[in-house]
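Supplementary Methods, section 5.1.

A reviewer requested that the exact input to the structure prediction be made available. We therefore reproduce it here, unchanged from the version used in the analyses.
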Amino acid sequence: GNKDMSGLTPLDKEHLTTVDVAEGALSMPAKTVKYGDQRRIAKVLKDEGFKDVVKQIDGRPKKVWVPARFV
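The structure derived from this sequence is encoded token-by-token as follows.
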């Protein structure tokens, strides 16, 4: 699978963002991901059993997706 510099695939992480999915699964550079792309990815994540939650990341609230079993 697509691994980042830490050697993790997106599914190994404790949470995902729509941009993580766009970069990892769809090979889209982050700067090219548009709002409509994010909405379509969010729908797929929701349909696949992920839930959107707000987590503190680097001291800031950020909307991320986690598998429903972890919510």
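The chain has a mean pLDDT of 86. These observations are discussed further in the main text.
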